[in-house]
Design a protein that fits this description.
- By secondary structure, this protein is of the alpha+beta class.
- The chain has 3 domains: 73 residues, no CATH class; 182 residues, Alpha-Beta Complex (tt1808, chain A), CATH 3.90.1570; 86 residues, no CATH class.
- The protein is built from 12 helices and 13 strands.
- Strands 4-7-8-9-10-11 form a 6-stranded mixed beta sheet, with helices on both faces. Strands 1-3-2 form a 3-stranded antiparallel beta sheet, with no helix packed on it. It has a two-stranded antiparallel ribbon with strand order 5-6.
Length: 400
């Protein structure tokens, strides 16, 4: 009986290459641990702002986010690009100042631009308008204060606020004195950010030895998980008011402003001097006396809940006008009308497209189509028509 001999590899000829004694079992291709970040040139920055003013939104060179875009650029290059925009493209520079929400961190050489969000922009525009209306209403009994407000108050939109570390932050909206460069009162709206994140940003405006910002108002909006067919569903608006004091930053938090009836505990109280820079009250103490004579400026809870709810209606109507119901349910977080998909009819794109916020291209938030009495009223009429049609179908006699 023969025993099988174990197989042995053949001898390697001397002419062949000798392989290393140990070989890796598998060959892995790994990405580099840190990707090199390309720095933008002056021409790149200028072209970037021109394209964004035209509605072209280049992707971020650092990451891609629905909320913000980040680009790497040196401070000297950025200043040179800003000078060119101011000199040769004043309209583009004005668009960048008012709508781009610039922010720059010199430590990381990162330029931050906020990506456009129709819900966020509409909510900011409506709440800012409501705040101005409530302030003017409170000043009606004080002619001197009202005249001061009309002459010297200056909405600064997203004017940059310098921070002690050399970086800048740009609020969603701001107010200040017409002769002062930096704002005194800032407004921050958060749709996808958390309450802590927007609160941390508001505190940065005040955390300096001589802050130019006196008061920061943060509004965090989100919907409650109610029945989508409930007619009374409203927004949950968490509002925080931050103010600078000698003993530190003081703040008040107003939670869930739609959960309980509107009462004095939910009213946000401001002062006229919140809109007046420190340097003005220091030079002219009579401005503080004028603010004390006016007293509290009360912002009811409906200022926030009704404004953000109207902004959501404008946002979701844009989805409804451009998409059939089955796509709308997958795209929009909150369907406008669940009953509209039962009859299989799509929205009237011909009759309502002219009222859509998207139909106007790059229009400003102050356009009439953004008001609650504009697109929101059209939205209500269309919903009522669909319900009437459904009721007629249900009440029709069954002929079968």
């Amino acid at each position: 009986m023969s025993v099988a001999r174990p197989l042995s590899p053949p001898h390697t000829p001397k002419s062949t290459l000798t392989l290393p004694a140990t070989l890796p079992q598998t060959l892995e291709i790994r990405p580099p641990t840190s990707a090199s970040r390309a720095f933008l040139s002056t021409d790149d920055v200028v072209k970037l702002f021109i394209k964004r003013a035209q509605g072209v939104l280049p992707h971020s060179s650092v990451n891609k986010s629905a909320e913000e875009a980040h680009f790497t650029v040196q401070k000297s290059v950025l200043d040179s690009a800003y000078d060119q925009l101011r000199r040769y493209w004043p309209d583009t520079w004005r668009h960048a100042e008012e709508k781009e929400h610039l922010g720059y961190d010199p430590a990381t050489a990162t330029l931050t631009l906020r990506m456009p969000n129709r819900l966020h922009e509409s909510a900011t525009s409506l709440i800012a308008r409501k705040i101005e209306e409530e302030v003017e209403k409170a000043l009606q009994r004080h002619p001197v204060a009202l005249e001061y407000w009309k002459q010297h108050n200056a909405p600064m939109l997203s004017a940059g606020v310098p921070l002690p570390d050399g970086s800048t932050l740009c609020p969603d909206a701001s107010w200040g004195h017409s002769k002062i460069k930096y704002p005194s009162f800032v407004l921050e709206i958060a749709c996808s950010q958390s309450q802590k994140d927007v609160g941390r940003k508001c505190k940065k405006y005040l955390e300096q030895e001589t802050p130019c910002v006196r008061t920061a108002l943060a509004v965090k909006c989100h919907y409650s998980p109610n029945d989508p067919q409930d007619e009374t569903r409203k927004l949950n608006a968490d509002v925080s008011l931050y103010s600078y004091a000698a003993d530190g930053i003081q703040y008040e938090v107003y939670k869930r402003m739609d959960k309980v009836p509107v009462n004095a505990d939910l009213n946000v109280r401001l002062r006229l001097e919140d809109f007046i820079p420190y340097v003005m009250t220091y030079v002219n103490p009579s401005l503080t006396n004028m603010s004390d004579a006016v007293g509290d400026i009360v912002l009811p809870a409906t200022v926030f809940t009704s404004s953000i709810d109207a902004a959501w209606r404008i946002h979701t109507e844009a989805c409804t006008v451009q998409m059939p119901p089955e796509i709308q349910r997958m795209t929009c977080k909150r369907p406008l009308d669940e009953e509209s998909s039962d009859d299989g009819t799509a929205p009237n794109e011909v009759g309502d497209a002219s009222q859509s916020p998207n139909s106007g291209g790059n229009e400003s938030n102050s356009d009439a189509s953004y008001t609650p009495t504009g697109t929101a009223a059209t939205f209500e009429r269309r919903i009522e028509a669909r319900r009437s049609k459904r009721q007629k179908t249900e009440n029709a006699p069954n002929l079968h």
